[in-house]
Amino acid sequence: MDETSLLLARMQFAANITFHILFPTVTIALGWMLLFFRLRFKATRDAKWEEAYYFWTKVFALTFALGVVSGITMSFQFGTNWPGFMEKAGNIAGPLLGYEVLTAFFLEATFLGIMLFGRGRVSERTHLIATFLVAFGTTMSAFWILSLNSWMQTPAGYEIINGKFHATDWFAIVFNPSFPYRFTHMLIASGLTMSFVVAGVSAWQILKKIDTPATAAAFKAAIVAAAVLIPIQIVVGDMHGLNTLKHQPAKIAAMEGLWNTEKGAPLVLFGIPDKETRSNLYAIEIPKLASLILTHDPDGEVKGINEFEGKHPPVLQVFWAFRLMVGTGMLMLLVSWVTLVYLRKRTPATLPKPLLYVLSGMVFAGWLATVSGWYVSEIGRQPYIVYGVVTVAETAAKHAPALIGLTFVGYLLLYTFLLIAYVLVVKRLAERPNRGQALTLPVHMRARAQSQAQAGD
Amino acid sequence: MDFLSTALPLFFMAAMGLAMLAYVVLDGYDLGVGMLLPRAANDDEKDLMVASIGPFWDANETWLVLGVGILLIAFPQAHGLVLTSLYLPVAVMLLGLTLRGVAFDFRMKAGDAKKPFWNTMFTAGSFIAAASQGWMLGSYITSFSDGAFAYAFNLLIALAVCATYTLLGAGWLIMKAEGDLQLRALAWARKATIPFALGIAAISIATPVVSETIFNKWFKLPDFFALMPIPMVTAAAVAALWHVSGRKSIMQAGYGWIVFAATVLVLVLASLGLAFSIYPYIVIDRLNVWEAASATDSLVIIFIGTAITLPTIIVYTVFVYRVFWGKAKDLSYGV
Ligand code: HDD
Ligand code: HEM
Ligand code: HEM
Hints:
The complex is a heterodimer of chains A (457) and B (335).
Chain A: H1 3-44, H2 47-81, H3 83-117, H4 124-153, E1 158-161, E2 164-167, H5 170-174, H6 179-207, H7 213-247, H8 249-256, E3 262-263, E4 267-274, E5 279-286, H9 289-295, E6 301-302, H10 315-345, H11 353-361, H12 365-379, E7 384-386, E8 390-391, H13 392-395, H14 401-431, H15 437-440, H16 443-456
Helix pairs in contact in A: 1-2, 1-4, 1-6, 1-12, 1-14, 2-3, 2-7, 2-14, 3-4, 4-6, 6-7, 6-11, 6-12, 7-8, 7-10, 8-10, 10-12
Chain B: H1 2-36, H2 43-53, H3 57-74, H4 76-85, H5 87-109, H6 115-141, H7 148-176, H8 179-210, H9 212-218, H10 223-227, H11 229-245, H12 248-255, H13 257-278, E1 281-283, E2 287-288, H14 289-292, H15 296-323
Antiparallel strand pairs in B: 1-2
Helix pairs in contact in B: 1-3, 1-6, 1-7, 1-13, 1-15, 3-4, 5-6, 6-7, 7-8, 7-13, 8-9, 8-11, 11-13
The complex binds CIS-heme D hydroxychlorin gamma-spirolactone (HDD) and protoporphyrin IX containing FE (HEM) (2 copies).
């Protein structure tokens, strides 16, 4: 196998899936938030909820479109980059991907049409159901794809005949050992990403003094969601780590930066893992804490990287990606709780300016944590594609490096361009929160919204 | 078990063919509207054209994911072979589909100054996607041959697919638009009919020439006579197209949908012809459906899922088309 081709194929796959995941993380949770806005409107008939719904629907539509087009790319990437994977594991990966298309993609794609354009054509109830089905579809999609990914991390329920995987127990495959943790952790990650996007954009609107009652409503909902989700995420993350310790000890060793098996292992706060000397440079450690976290015993034994000679992932990337995720999580905890405490006494518009600046600065903090988390999972699984069974190198396509390089550069240029365009357009939408509203409201609601707006003045 | 291991691969081959046909018809009209966009008289007309496909394009594109999905799920061996052979055209198509898909939103939200740019991306993306799909079809028919002759054949099919989608797009606009735009759509349909008909004829002649396997299948008695209805009905459908697209009065009498329906009929017949040509192969002369299939157990699992979900999908797809039935005038892409 050509080393350069393999490296390029991996970089290409990683770049594409990284670009893709940015958008699902927002849409999965934003779908549910939109449903919440809609239900609040139905219950209170307060126009601010409807306005919040319309504004965030625009962002949703844009994000969804980017999620769809990059997802279509992903569905071809298995075949173009890892044909060996489908040949070996097709019997298992195939049905999981198939169920995703059949139960999730069609659902969300079809009802999105009604959600975006159906107002005035269908009853309020049907529209509500369509909004629900879109949110449900995105969540189902996460369910199936994470089931597959978790199976690749912790394979179960299979036997190997003539070098190919065959299913023996579908329940064990779908609900493989790491799946419950990964699915929960990812859904909450999506909730947090969305919350910080909503809170960040709203904070920025407040700073620019273009906020409306809808801004305040969305802001509060987002802060409460973030403040509730982040402690749960930390607990789930810890449980996820314990599960990983059981199934992928080499990954944990890399995350913790532990080179040698130790009793009473320290928690390395900072350091630069160095593969030449097989030690951490400039390390700052807290004695015994890693053992305490991982084994719940200060003198418990934790396996080091040296136990897995030749079969462990690159340490530096995993170590730092993990710190980036956890660090962002801690920051999220701090910021969301401080804001929540302020909100007991103040309205969003009167929050201290520095806090609003911090929140708008953290608008994409969820992206940072999510992508770092995925890097921990995926790089930490190297050199395997199906953990412990099949290596990546065995499954790669044998394309000429120039061909992969060419398309890789193409994807990178396109994605950079689209990402910049996305951020600029969200900014532009935020600057004109009410622009086009009269256009998009259906006739019977337009009159009501106007009369309520006048009553509110 | 034996019955299942014979029948299921055939079932999935048929399902894949149907998904691809659904894709060609459905996303075909979207991409066609995209290619026709520069011909609109003004900006409002452009908005209307895009609005007419707005609620549908995403679901339409999902048929491609299903088609490729079935290839991947049911025929993993072929999936690897096909997609590695088509590496570059697939990448080009994805580029096109990406530009087209994001342009829906960006053209409305990025501001008036950038709208012409995104309109161009919309058209370019539609064109790139259509042409690369045609190229891939050509390449598939010649079993991924290389060389000037094969490339010329692929190019021919690429152009024919662009013409087909344009015709579908025009047929769609005839049904969804009114007044001036509808009249213009009729004229576009007429213009597109010529390359469409030429393309169909050229492909029918070229395919047996480039593929000996296909030649032997069609030009063998008595099959030759049994197959005659396919070209004959195709010719009749093209004649109907030509007739209707030339007459305003027929459209104004409410029969404009014939343009779309006749195009779809031709596509159905072409698919039947293609299916006959390649059966029982999945990659012509290299891999048949049974060699390429997944384990029977896995196929059973997806068969159950397909049997339950596909009818449901069809029901709600019909529901959505009914919700947006009629002229496209009051759909806005404001959100
Ligand atoms: C945790 C969530 C998640 C992850 C890890 C992935 N996706 Fe995804 N994907 C979604 C969550 C999602 C979604 C929420 O369902 C999307 C995003 C926005 C959207 O429209 O649907 C989507 C869209 C989407 C689409 C377009 C569907 C449509 O037409 O509506 C395809 C084909 C894929 N994805 C394929 C993939 C593949 C092959 C992946 C892995 C290699 C993958 N996705 C990772
Ligand atoms: C959505 C978030 C995800 C991100 C950010 C992500 C990131 C990455 C990265 C960085 C790599 C390269 C690792 C390396 O080569 O060092 C990779 C590889 C890979 N990932 Fe993921 N991944 C994600 C989800 C998934 C999912 C859901 C699947 C499958 C269902 C998947 C399947 C693969 C495969 C097949 C490879 C290539 C083989 C390998 O290098 O291990 N990934 N991913
Ligand atoms: C602060 C405490 C956190 C802990 C202890 C934690 C723990 C973990 C662990 C151990 C993994 C690797 C799992 C594996 O592959 O074996 C992981 C992955 C991941 N983390 Fe975290 N995490 C935390 C916070 C966050 C936050 C705040 C986010 C995003 C907002 C996040 C998003 C992710 C994602 C998307 C993955 C990859 C998917 C997965 O394996 O679940 N994490 N996390």
